[in-house]
Amino acid sequence: MPAFAGKTIFDTQYTRYETMWEYTDKLKDHFFNPRNVGEVEDPDGVGEVGSLACGDALKLTFKLDKNGKIADAKFKTFGCASAIGTSSVLTEMIKGLTLDEAAKVTNKDIADYLGGLPEQKMHCSVMGREALEAAIENYRSGGKKKHELEGTVVCTCFGVTDKEIERVIIENDLTTVEEVTNYCKAGGGCGGCQGEIEKIIEKIQGEKVKEVPVSAPRRAGKMTNIQKIQLIQQTINEQIKPALRAHGGNIELIDVEGNKVIVAFRGMCAQCKLTEFTMKDVVEAKLKEFVSDELFVEEVKESAQEPHNHRE
Amino acid sequence: MKTVYFDNNATTKVAEEVLEEIKPLFCDLYGNPSSMHTFGGQIGRRIRQAREQVAGLLGCDPSEIVFTGCGTESDNTAIKGTLAAMPNKRTVITTRVEHPAVLAVCRDLENHGYTVIELSVDRQGQLDMAELEDRLDDDTALVTIMYANNETGTVFPVEDIAELVTSKGAMFHTDAVQAVGKIPLNLSKSNIDLLSLSGHKLHAPKGVGVLYIRKGTRLSPFMLGGHQEGGRRAGTENVPGIIGLGKACELAAENLEAENSKVKSLRDKLEKAILQKCPDCRLNGDTDNRLPNTSNISFEYIEGEAILLMLDKYGICASSGSACTSGSLEPSHVLRAMGVPFTAAHGSIRFSLSRYNTEEEVDYTIDKLPPIINQLRELSPFVTK
Hints:
The complex is a heterodimer. Helices cover 42% and strands 16% of the residues of chain A. Chain A has 13 helices and eight strands. Chain A has helices spanning 7-11, 25-32, 81-94, 99-103, 107-113, 122-140, 162-172, 177-184, 194-205, 207-211, 225-245, 267-271, 279-290, and strands at 45-51, 56-64, 70-78, 153-155, 160-161, 249-257, 260-266, 296-299. In chain A, the strands form three sheets. In chain A, strands 1-2-3 form a three-stranded antiparallel beta sheet. Chain A has a three-stranded mixed beta sheet with strand order 6-7-8. In chain A, helix 6 crosses helix 8 (177-184). Chain B is of the alpha/beta class. The radius of gyration of chain B is 22 Å and the shape is globular. The relative contact order of chain B is 0.16. The A-B interface holds A 1-4, 15-17, 20, 31-32, 34, 37-38, 48, 52-53, 55-59, 75-81, 83-84, 158, 181, 185, 188-189, 237-238, 241-242, 245, 311 and B 1, 3, 107-108, 110-112, 115, 301-306, 308-310, 312-315, 317, 322-325, 327-331, 342-343, 346, 378-382.
């Protein structure tokens, strides 16, 4: 008996590993019997997004009829079942639409058409919308324009820009970093950009984010300077290091002067161009949460003249 | 439809003989071995027998066997217990390809002031012994290196490693969860100090593991409480699990030969046919030093989860190191450590067999898999005709 046809699997509690059994029948149908596979001959628009390294990629081609409606659309997809299923569904959805109508299709429309997607797979629907957009853009520029990233890159692991993040937040009414990761992968690699994503969410959702009741963090009362430094070190060790370590980076506490916490980033994090406005913010937020609101963080850059004796 | 189970490195079927052995332990012989009455006390004898059966498979003394709740608990106990007993040494050496039950523990140690060295591996997934020797020093408390890799089946030269490590005065632990029952062991002739195994990987039920602790090894207990397991692991014994594991070890000893002949030839047949029939495939792991039951194959240009779902339609169970199945957005840490390109890691499939697999199942899979690979490649934008 295939596992997803059996009831037992559905009856168990879902974990991240079981997402593949959460696919709707419609998605499974489009995965096992994909429609419109291939490339339209002599296409009017071509949209290519994703890459082999990222784990999924989609090439969408379409041809218009004499009334300017999409007469034919085909896809080629590298990716998991939901990436293939969403691509197949997308080609069905856009046939017969004018380009203006097609341009209005959102990732949510694609997911809804499928009867929903597992949360962790929502990025597949976003990839579909991006490919469609890229193909339309390609057509409107007379076939010259290839898909280009708009905005500045926030997530370097998966190459996601602030504009893309803003868009998934608005279109899907997202309020947490985890949701943003599910929808466009941003923040799902080293996690170094999660502070930046949080800021984007706050900028867009404003009050909505703050509405969520947050319990006041449990903090130490009055501390001696030594206690404070110990707590800062402990917070860095427990709350910050593991995330950085996971991606080959590290952080070192250099000094504490009053409320100024001086840290240095090592390994991958030190070379990361985004260090300035992301890592520092993440560290500062954690220290404010776990130690004291008063703290602020400064970063020292590693210099060849001042060798540190930190272990490697 | 029949299930074709090629995912035995994830878990295994409980052997019928094991099930028969433990059936009476739930409703009839449910006593607590610590009780003073005969009803409970007789269970103690059965546990002693299980301990002897496990020791028989490992080639050690029964007193060196401690039953735990799972392989992960055995690993945690070995690592943390050793370090707690050696407070003056602060360095731990491991590898980048360990199971999370070891790797996550080691990475947590870094937060507690330990220096953790993660040895790298080459393209076959093998270690550089010279690098290990180079990194060992007076501060090294423990070296923990797996016997065989769960994803690729690559077997490390653990006996040589144990000799090297112990000659330098450090303790040596090995996570042998995948090796036990597939590779002959004789711990009485080995330098291994600590060894972890898990019941459900060798046809015993889930929820029971073993930590082998060489006589004279100083280890602080992880679970404190009652006097069970000679004070080395408190908590009422998982009686059916332990007795089932004893029986499973006895069966494993009897089947060791078959694992290395029958199972191996089935694996080889499956692997050879797949590589022959599907273009653009690569085998991951060290083919000269590999578990007899495991085959890890990367299919270029396509993604693992999609392959698994297609196989699942035919009742064929396997697993993948792709991002979509790893529970994160990045593919297997083992394949990445081996330098397998992301593209091939995303399309990796692991077949792991057991003595319960048949030639018919292998033929069935050889028949079903190539069309699946072709079908998915027809969908892939990276395949150009």
